[in-house]
Amino acid sequence: MTLVVSALAAISAAAPKGAITQEQIDRWSQTSIQGADKAMADIIAGANVQDVALNRERYIAHDGHVNFTIKTGDITNQKSSGRCWMFAGLNVLRPQVIRKFKLKKFEFSENYLMFWDKLEKANFFLQEMIDLADRPIDDRELEIVIEDPLGDGGWWTYLTDLIRKYGLVPKEAMPETYNSSSTGTMNTLIGEKLKEMGVQLRNLVRAMTPPEQVNGRREEMLAELYRLLTLNLGRPPKEFVWRYETNDTTKTTICQKTYTPQGFFAEAIGDDLNRYVALFHYPGKDYFENYSLRLSRNMYDRPDFTILNLPVDSLRAYALKSVLDSTPVWFACDVGKENYGKDGIMALDIYNYASIYGTTFDMPKADMIHMQLITPNHAMVFMGVDTLKGQAQKWLVENSWGEDRGDKGKWYMYNDWFDRYMFGVIIDEKYLSDDLKKLATKPPLALPPWDPMYSLNRLH
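Request: output the structure for the sequence above.
Response:
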């Protein structure tokens, strides 16, 4: 009897399968840290690991020389907002305005497009709450719709769809407000009101309310949201006077003209924005295929964002072709990785973590994406390139974080960083081969909104 009790006690005391045992802890704790490892442990414990890990050899090898630069204007600043996609997109377009009107500098009004982006996102959310009203509240797709309906994030096509519908205005026609530059409180309060409205619409649909009454209520809600956005961002101009100074080699002239936003876009840009193609490097998915990201749009009546998946060297080749033809390139990357912000250096191994910790950090890019270690979380612009024998060595990047970060707002991206942390570039189709142009028109394969590529929508 005593043996049976002892056996049962031993079984009950045994750790469940997969649990950490005391025996393992005792064995691991016997491994002592000696010599250089002990000194390194003291250093790491008392300092920022990035400061300790700075790879001085890589840092010293960096230089700020770039042999081809596009004139783009002053560095912009999105401040405390997640509008990188919008700032980057407008920074791609503004060199055309600078050249056309012979300006020293120019900036579009990001606040103007932000107003319409918020209103369109609100409408998208309310309509999705109607369309998905028959689903349970914990439906996976519905949960993503509900998660952050008024967030600042977006993709390239968010910008082009807004411009086609609402036009553009110079910054002085609708300047920034406190809430456009620091969106947290505005998004929280209007987002709460928006979700309250979404619940009401969902309940109306589930109560079998006639569709015309549901839609009428939605329009009333949008009118209220328009009012709330106006309080925070100002009223978008229907017409404005643009007074500007042209500069050429002989004289300076003050010009003045009255525009509508659509008229200003037509005269200042006038381009067919549909001609741009999104080339992405998404290892783990088939190359030379089109993919669309479900729910990656800010307008209910527009298609989702579509990408053409290619090997990374193709992205590099077409980006180089575009920049050398003085056309800036919008791109999406994981900006938080191996980035020395003090001097704006984006280079693989700029931090030597492997030597400090005595282990490796070399997971393949596809696995890093699947494990959500890297995501396309920031958009910027290639405004120059440093070449050697016709090949890109490093890229000059225009960011939208102001002049206090990086090299007075500019960054330098090396090719090894490009290969590992770059996700996508937006290229004018005139630079693409005929085969790629044709491929870009193929019907896309749909990716769900929980796919890692969707993450740019969730910027804050």
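The first strand starts at residue 68 and ends at 69.
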